Known about the structure:
The protein is an alpha/beta fold. 31% of the residues lie in helices and 20% in strands. Strand 1, helix 1 and strand 2 form a beta-alpha-beta unit.
Amino acid sequence: MNGVQPAAAASGVALFGATGYAGREAARLIATHPAFRLAAVFGGPERVGLPLAAIHPALRGLTDARCEALPENGRAGALAGDLAARGVRFALLATPEAASMRMAPPLIAAGLRVVDLSGAFRLDGPDAFADWYGADHEAPALFDHAVYGLAEWRRAAIAAADLVANPGCYPTAALLAILPLRRAGLIDSAAPVVVHAVSGVSGAGRRLREDLLFCEVEGSVRPYGLPRHRHLAEIARLADLAPGDGLIFIPHLAPFDRGLIGSVSLRLAPGAGPIEIAAAFAAAYAGAPFVRALGDGPLPSTGDVRGTNTCALGWTAVPGGRHLVVHAVIDNLIKGAAGQAVQNLNLMAGRPEDEGLPR
Ligand SMILES: NC(=O)c1ccc[n+]([C@@H]2O[C@H](COP(=O)([O-])OP(=O)(O)OC[C@H]3O[C@@H](n4cnc5c(N)ncnc54)[C@H](OP(=O)(O)O)[C@@H]3O)[C@@H](O)[C@H]2O)c1
């Protein structure tokens, strides 16, 4: 028996990549959600049969689900059909791009609606994917279906979508900071927007990597992924800025487990002052349950939003008045991944956007 009992009419969700970090948070959110139930969980091929709570001790008492078998080559359609027959309506893919590209088409063909946390469907199409991810796309036809899942900016399209491309963690923070000013015409596009960002180590996932061992990351901050981090393309696409001349992205890895700050510096358009800036954020996020536009007072820090689906925004005018720095903080595993995915599931299922999500 699950420790938490969902309502009888709760919608079934199949969670792929449940054994990873984003998967752990998604499992917790779905298992405790009043309108969803964790109907099936999957890890990699070596996890079949294992209780999810044995892999993530934090889930003990929340779920007794065991990892199911992934489909063998060419058998994904049968698994998708089986899930549909079991009444599963949604699939959440917390998997690497290659696995998401393989699973999304049969799941959608079987009638499930999919939220993908990977970068497989976030860019313009297969050419952009090949350019930035260095691999051919295995499901190019699905780009026509994919809706970019930044909930605050795409609510209606997400609600109707059968495939939502959940945003990356850095793009979530950067875009929530940039878009209000960009849409209000307050950015001088003659100067590049610079996103200087810092993430905790869970942003790289749970798989073993030598450069992410404790002794490699503790006590040190390092830039990485330059000059062509994949999230540069994603931020540029959504903000309609050219990578390089229009947008510079400088990610850093820092020695904490979770949390992310994006500090966005930009030149203001003539006439853009404190009143216009505050009005742009207020208009963009009126009624948005998970964005707190805090203004130009004390600046937010990652600890303020740890474990929540909140993005807190604060801004500072640079002396001289022509430049602004906007700071966006999120928990990379919640608003940057699993929480935003559940926010999108809520919209797709016609539930309140903030249902079952911590603020
Ligand atoms: N971490 C973040 O902050 C964050 C933020 C936004 C988006 N994302 C995206 O979310 C996805 C998951 O990220 P993560 O950080 O949770 O990674 P992770 O901790 O490495 O977990 C990856 C999950 O995918 C499974 N998996 C790996 N290869 C697979 C395959 N070929 N077929 C099926 N399942 C496979 C893994 O299973 P095993 O455990 O058995 O290996 C694990 O459950 C990635 O696409 C990532 O880019 C992550």
